[in-house]
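ok so for the tutorial part 2 we go from a plain amino acid sequence to predicted structure tokens. step 1 is just haveing the sequence, like this:
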Amino acid sequence: MRKLLKKLSKKENKKKITNTTLAKEKLRLNKPETILQILKRLWLDKQDKSTSFSSNKKNLLKLSMKRLVEEAAFVLNIPLPQARKRIKRILRRENKK
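step 2 — the prediction. this is what the tokens look like for a chain of 97 residues:
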């Protein structure tokens, strides 16, 4: 889990378009690495003010965050709020780079 969270903080050099239908299908697989990729992509989309962030993407962002928080809390044996804070802190740090 720590390695996965480290991947979350790595800078991406390409801007990819998020296909919400494909992202939903991938979320159903419930693989932490896939969830992490979806969350990161949606987070970056949300931070990009030049693009619109639809309600569908917003719901998908919430769902992917919830799943990753639950996974991190379970694996790291920490409370859900602490896991959420940790993930958000990593995401914010990524955005500042």
